Amino acid sequence: MDSVSSSSFLSTFSPKSSLHHSLLSRRSSSTSTLLLRINSAVVEERSPISNPSDNNGRPQSKTKKLHSRTNHTVVSSPAKHRPEMTLATALFTTVEDVINTFIDPPSRPSVDPKHVLSDNFAPVLDELPPTECEIIHGSLPLSLNGAYIRNGPNPQFLPRGPYHLFDGDGMLHAIRIHGGKATLCSRYVKTYKYNVEKQSGAPVMVNVFSGFNGVTASVARGALTAVRVLTGQYNPINGVGLANTSLAFFCNRLFALGESDLPYAVRLTDDGDVETIGRHDFDGKLSMSMTAHPKIDPVTGETFAFRYGPVPPFLTFFRFDSAGKKQRDVPIFSMTSPSFIHDFAITKRHAIFSEIQLGMRMNPVDLMIEGGSPVGTDNGKTPRLGVIQRYAGDESEMKWFEVPGFNIIHAINAWDEDDGNSIVLIAPNIMSIEHTLERMDLVHSLVEKVKINLVTGIVTRHPISARNLDFGVINPAFLGRRSRFVYAGVGDPMPKISGVVKLDVSKGDRDDCTVARRMYGPGCYGGEPFFVGRDPGNPEAEEDDGYVVTYVHDEVAGESKFLVMDAKSPELEIIAAVRLPRRVPYGFHGLFVKESDLNKL
């Protein structure tokens, strides 16, 4: 039975927020309410909830409101000061407006800001300093001392043209927990792109996923980009990435990651603030980019990673030793066309890559005739799984296995069986890969259990749940080892997550492996769950002895909360709920960093 499915759980611990049903007035000369527009969508701002102690008894400043025409939900963010544009920036912005209006307006829902930034996908319009949170249900366990940090896109400037969900600047939403109390802080990752555009007062760098729709638009924006670079507005050598996808803790550093650039080192201060240290190249040994999903072996302390790109080698595998020293690259030339490789898996002996039907559209004639993004599907391509030894010196040990119809974006876990002669992979298979970038609401992902016989080359697979599931995680202590439990988000539809399920992958091949679930209730959606062990230093602890944590937003009440669920409970019982002082938009991947690791930063 769904333990929370009728009345919204999120509203049972707090009174409903008052809803604003009237249109808000335009800016007056005396009382300035900042009114912004995303084409026809109206967006306003208000200040976040403040700690009483922050005002020293002074009355709080007037609020500004973020108002949605579709559901009239009020969300919050303080207004930000914009620097004045230079003449060059104003000229370039005018040219870009011409491109956005006459050459390449946002004609598809996937790149239309009115659609992409609706509801809780709308950005918060400024940062939030560390702010106290109210615990409205239960109590926070001491084993959660540390910080849960979630990364996601939050455009610094509201889009003036085509915009894809993946194009937003990275913002980290960190809830710092200590002694049963919590504070929330939301800060941008101060990437080179973010800093350049903040100084310019306007967008400068082209959006990768939405800026190249057909040849005409690509030529126009490419020419404008060239002029910006030649006039010194920015230098792409310093990085063009967003750092908006995930986080990882390795080499005693915390990184914000995006696969189009190098990692950005960040840290949390004692009071819970988030600071960007800078772009990190590991003493000059890491170049170009790195996956947003590195794998940290919990036993050896090594970190395995890769990069992919549009020119050969289309895939490069590498690792960092336990001391954080990057080892040499292993280029994979046997992948003969550019493929979208977002994630991979490791075992004790191997690394597993998936070459899927999503990749770069390299034919300019097709782009000119059909238009659309340069990233698209190739229905004539047969998906493959590539397996290579973890410590391979070159690609001669790479083996490829064709697996028709198996397209994965994320990998959950993998392990060796049969004395290393077989590999088991757990991953969600996207049944309609052609919709991945254009119509995510039509995507249905089945979590599958795949077995690769490295001797015979036979690959067998079967689904372990019929639900639409993605963003699956395990107990991190079992990464690369045989694991039993998976915690995955329920798409309703994707990319909205209406609940979380617990799967037991050890059940029979023909059984639905769902053993627990928690639905958030009508109008309530969350994101990727994350498992935190109750006693992570105890090697005797049971695999599911811990907590599942996530952010959840109530679109009716306009409130966001942090939930802590008992991972062993058959209903994933909520043992703590924290009301957040400001809305947290939907995002991508998160990480829990324990107190002892925070102290190393």
UniProtKB/TrEMBL annotation:
Its cofactor is Fe(2+). InterPro entries: Carotenoid_Oase. The keyword Repeat does not apply. Residues 48-60 have a biased composition (Polar residues). Binds 1 Fe(2+) ion per subunit. GO terms for molecular function: dioxygenase activity; metal ion binding. The keyword Metal-binding applies. Residues 61-70 have a biased composition (Basic residues). Pfam families: RPE65 (PF03055). Fe cation binds at residues 293, 342, 410, 589. Keywords: Dioxygenase, Iron, Metal-binding, Oxidoreductase. Residues 46-80 are annotated as: Disordered. It comes from the Eukaryota. This is Carotenoid cleavage dioxygenase 4.
